Amino acid sequence: MENIKAYVQEHKERFINELIELLKIPSVSADTAYSHDVFETADTVKASLEKAGCDFVEICDTPGYPIVYGEKIIDPNLPTVLVYGHYDVQPPDPMELWTSPPFEPVIKKTDIHPEGAIFARGACDDKGQMYMHVKALEYMVQSNTLPCNVKFMIEGEEEIGSKSLSWFVERNQEKLKNDVILISDTGMISNQQPSITTGLRGLSYVEVEVTGPNRDLHSGLYGGAVANPINVLAKMIASLHDENNHITIPGFYDNVEELSLEERAEMAKAPFSLEKYKNALQLNDVYGEKGYVTNERNSIRPTLDVNGIWGGYTGEGAKTVIASKAFAKISMRLVPNQDWEEITELFTKHFNSIAPAGVTVLVKPHHGGQGYVTPIDSIGYKAANMAYAETFGVPAIPVRSGGSIPIVALFEKELKSKTILMGFGLDSDAIHSPNEHFGIFNYLKGIETIPLFYKYFVELSK
Ligand code: BES
Ligand code: MN
Ligand code: MN
């Protein structure tokens, strides 16, 4: 495997340029205006897998966006690694906050990425990280070092809930049979300290609508005499947390797994600077649930956050009006053992129960998924750790992440295999935000590290 470093050095310009081409296609799954581009991206991914050396690649149609499936089976008796990734990206808005257009990738240096980072929507989440696997395969095929079978499953709806992928996985258990699932769609602590994500939070996403009068009203003639849906919604939302920032929905914490003090002490060993954290976000202080520190609040604890709130007049100048309706989008991040459908029900019941007379409330569930935790004594985890240790010079630290990849729990249920989350992004890479980027160092390091995972996974499987 000594050669992988040399191979990456020799081909890095091309690796970067190929990723840049992929990033130019605006594959925004949430917005149907981009639908054509999402389909085109699937074709581009298919072509890249063929070129990298898959023996068989196909576009699998679904009720939604297609899944790109590829494989290289060298010997049915050898283990099989299933690589999952997504080629869809988040919407780029707010556009005016990008320092360069989101679908015109450019390389810029930053404090954290002195050797440069590619700025574009999807650079890190997940086109850049997904493409590392395509290039790692290219290396293994070119150098004749692919030690086992490999399958690729790259979807186009991760950012909108992976509906079609669930449909696909349920119908293709045999085709997707594997010994381990490998995903790069998470982060690591820093470029000096790799980490392996051992947990993902679950998610329940709902939209609420509060209706007062049957039409917008003059706020002088009617103000004070009828319920204002925006006032009411604000009050209802505020009541969802108490003074300690605990969530007030009855039953919400019932199944939450409490970590032991030992486990929490272990977590606290991961390098973290509160000062740097605050500085990076220009905050004068952090905020959250009483009794827990920042790295616990954003990983092992469930949360409830408003993602968007609207209603009434928001145009230029002033308009004196009481809106007929007010809306909000609310996400709840869940921890293992909390069932997302149960939590959605608890939320719905509670939200209806706190509505005052004078308004009606409608709760619309969007999507959700279960959380995930993976043990650190599996062959897959050990192989990943050995791979990181070799390319970074230090072993990886296990870290539970606050983000969600709901499909991972479904993989375990349907395909009965464990997922290894080998992420190479950094929290500061601004995924889902304006100016998303992915370090060149991280991209190339990923390509270097992945073939070692295969090598050690096969060795440990013997
Ligand atoms: N790749 C992210 C999830 C992620 C990022 C996990 C960093 C851990 C570290 C994924 O694309 C994502 O954004 N997931 C969504 C959930 C989805 C159902 C919309 C999320 O976490 O908000
Ligand atoms: Mn992602
Ligand atoms: Mn994402």
UniProtKB/TrEMBL annotation:
Residues 199-357 form the Peptidase M20 dimerisation domain. The keyword Hydrolase applies. Keywords: Hydrolase, Metal-binding, Protease. The keyword Metal-binding applies. SUPFAM superfamilies: Zn-dependent exopeptidases (SSF53187). It comes from the Bacteria. NCBIfam families: PRK07907.1 (NF005914), PRK08201.1 (NF006053), PRK09104.1 (NF006579). This is Dipeptidase. It comes from Flavobacterium turcicum.
